Amino acid sequence: xPASILEEVRHLLGAALIRDTTxxxxxxxxxxxxxxxxxxxxxGISYVCTACGHSWS
Length: 57
What we know:
Number of strands: 3
Shape: elongated
Radius of gyration: 17 Å
Mean pLDDT: 77
Number of helices: 1
Helix content: 25-40%
Structural class: alpha+beta
Strand order of the largest sheet: 1-2-3
Strand content: 15-25%
Oligomer: single chain
Low-confidence stretches: 18-22
């Protein structure tokens, strides 16, 4: 059990940062990791590579 709430928050933030780095997207066209998540025309989520302009959902 954590000694303080601050320690628990640090633990949770550390876990979130680790998870974030393992789930990064890469462009299927050029392989770049420079990908933006955007709202699609139909309300769904789409992705756009900011390196080459390729988009997908």
